[in-house]
């Protein structure tokens, strides 16, 4: 991936094009957490508004592909994602500009009533058809290096899945007595089995304080999860374990590998 870039380091033409969408930018704050795009920032405008922007050089194939995926799925996501204000390609850069979502990260701890909001949102998103005629990678293809040939067939499906539901991407907004959950950062969207979206949350639930038993019980509320075969779950777990080892090395990946193994416990 290209080196990280601040707002002031973007080419002038890129900044001017972004400002044509959001207005004059008077401040930009980049997050400290890791993002898959070289440029990520919350923008403050002279009119007192805010927007969220992310971008990458078009020659950065991995980051630019993530931006493409996010741009093509945005029109079908409706209220479940931050509205896309602009998909800009200028001076060798691609930049996505979103409406800023004010909120807090979902509380995944045991007993949190926000888990019910998350569950309903995930079930609602499962009713969305993938964008027609738009190429998105199959989950099995994206994880090809982590799967055997037999395992790939077990991860086939036709659902639109986010695949990266870490806490930073789960934002809840309170308005009066209502609550709305946004699923942010669809740059890793794929086509796969619906149950894989829920399986991907398992590790997040454990890190949020759940026991393996309570995490599996929570997942059991979903129809798609209850109909996932054990062999398919085994393929999913194996892929996640191999991915962690590949990215972190054996020693650093050991806790995550152990957590994923408990998904298959009876």
TrEMBL record:
Gene3D superfamilies: 3.90.1200.10. SUPFAM superfamilies: Protein kinase-like (PK-like). Pfam families: APH (PF01636). It comes from the Bacteria. InterPro entries: Aminoglycoside_PTrfase (IPR002575), Kinase-like_dom_sf (IPR011009). Residues 136-231 form the Aminoglycoside phosphotransferase domain. This is Aminoglycoside phosphotransferase domain-containing protein. It comes from Embleya scabrispora.
